[in-house]
Amino acid sequence: MKKFHFTLALLAMTQALGALSAQAQSPSDSDLQALRFYMNEANDLAVRSEVRRLQLRYPDWVVPEDLATLQQIAPDEAVASIYREIRSGNFVRARTLIEETGRATPGWAPSPELLAALSIAEAQSSFDQAVSRGEPEAAIRIARATPELLRCERVNNAWLLAEQYQAAREPALALTTLNGVVRSCSDPNILVATLEKSVAVASLEELAAMADAARAGAPGSAQRLTSVENRLRAGLQTQPRPLASATPSGAPAAFDASAGALSSNKTQRPSAQPPLAPSPRRTLSGGASTALSQARTAAQRADWSTCLAASAKGTSPEIVSQRAWCALNAKRPMQALNDFKLAASRSPTAEGRRDARYGMALVMLQLNMVDQAANVAATTHFSDQQRLEVETQILDKRGVSAYERHDYRRAIAYFDELERLSGVVRRDIALLRGYAYLNSGQRARARVEFQAIHDKLATPESRRALSRALH
Q1: pLDDT at 444
Q2: Are 454 and 439 a contacting pair, CB within 8 Å?
């Protein structure tokens, strides 16, 4: 905040002018709104003029030497009230309080944490309602739009999402969701429950792979997890399998970042990729090595604030990269983006630079900076899985954006390319593509698209779409 200092002469003049008024009180918050506005605009002339006006009206008011002290912050009680409304599910009232607090306290803005709490609570409520109403498409759409719902601390949402995919006759996506839980969470109780739920959609080979991933993520509970796996195999009338002593090799199975948590207990980032902060190829100093170890340990617990604190002073590319992933998981995308850029410019290895640029692309997509993310993708030699993840998100966002602009033919082109690249098309995207056909005059193709969706799972949504294409 710019400080405004006044000379003794100005103070004497304003006090003399103040004698013209007999009113003896100080300006209220409402009276100070114009002054605060001019201060925020750094308009010195207007500030001085407004001070004179206030001094005339309130002669006993002592003008502070530093006007910055007049800038008002949001009362603690107002913010506490907003959080109470959020916890009570009164989201409209919470937004009203935010607006009222902003009007009453110029210069105040709701913190990112407050806005995130409101957004997540609204999404959670909508998700719960969709599940209760038996509307799997709506529940899936909400979960994919709000990855925060699928973090390990909200694991029940991920389990419910898997059930919604099963209800929508998408067992592969249900398995992907459960796989993401196993590869993202380290709580043994969560891992056991997820393995048990996976039996409904996993083959023996897939169950084995998930159990291997669970043991690798929670080695201290390996015996318990093996016992659970053997019990599940026995239920399928299959003998226990011999286990190799080594940790399974290869990258973990993909967990769609738009439908799952951005946390992984082994890699501390989207689990379809190599480790978030790869093992250093050069020796770090004792302090730097300790900080990196502490940050990684915290990230394994999904303790993002501790991870950020441990890595706050680090300057090595490895620590900066780890801090960036923790910032991304902590919902601090701008900090994450800056650290990813720094890590990409400093990393001594091609792999380190590539992984940092991958993180940059993910943050940009989260911020809807689609063109910038596409530019990063075009100039980076990503791994196959990284490129698939980034490019499918780009196509998804561009297709939806084109549809919302009523550019239906371009939307169809993006959705077609998304299907070609990923090999599948989500039900919500298929519905959008069908409506894009319909709105662009391709009624016959719309009918084929909607019929395929309806044949797979008949819902009021698919019936309504098919009816529109037939009439």
Answers
A1: 92
A2: no
Q: What angle do CA 38, 42, 45 make, to 5 degrees?
A: 70
Query: Where are the chain's structural domains?
Result: 8-70, 136-234, 293-379, 383-471
Q: At what angle do helices 76-88 and 91-104 cross, to 10 degrees?
A: 170
Angle at 469 between CA 467 and CA 470, to 5 degrees: 65
CB atoms within 10 A of CB 441: 11
H or E segment to which residue 257 belongs = none
pLDDT tens-digit map of 81-124: 888 899 889 999 999 988 888 887 766 778 777 888 898 899 99
CATH topology (fold) of 293-379: 1.25.40
- Residue range 268-327, pLDDT digits in tens: 333 333 333 333 344 444 455 788 888 888 887 777 888 888 888 888 889 999 999 988
Q: What is the CA 220 to chain-centroid distance, rounded?
A: 30
Amino acid at position 296, single letter: R
Residue 90: alpha-carbon gap to chain centroid: 22
Question: What is the rounded CA–CA span in Å between residue 410 and residue 222?
Answer: 50
- Type of residue found at 429: I
The whole-angstrom separation of Cα 351 and Cα 251 is: 15
pLDDT at site 243: 62
- Token readout for 346 is 């400093």
Predicted pLDDT of residue 158? 93
- Given a contact cutoff of 8 angstroms between Cβ atoms, the answer to whether 292 and 318 are in contact is yes
What is the separation of C-alpha 270 from the centre of its chain, rounded to a whole number of angstroms? Answer: 12
Q: Which residue do the tokens 């400080």 mark?
A: 3
Give the dihedral of Cα atoms 351, 354, 355, 361; nearest 10 deg: -170
State yes or no: pLDDT of 4 exceeds 60.
no
Note the pLDDT of residue 434: 94
Same fold, 293-379 and 383-471: yes
CATH topology of domain 383-471: 1.25.40
CB atoms within 10 A of CB 31: 16
Residue 13 burial class via C-beta count within 10 angstroms: exposed 0-12, middle 13-18, buried 19 and up: middle
Residue 370: burial class (beta carbons within 10 Å; 0-12, 13-18, 19+): middle
CA dist 178 and 158 (Å) reads 7
Quick check: pTM over 0.85? no
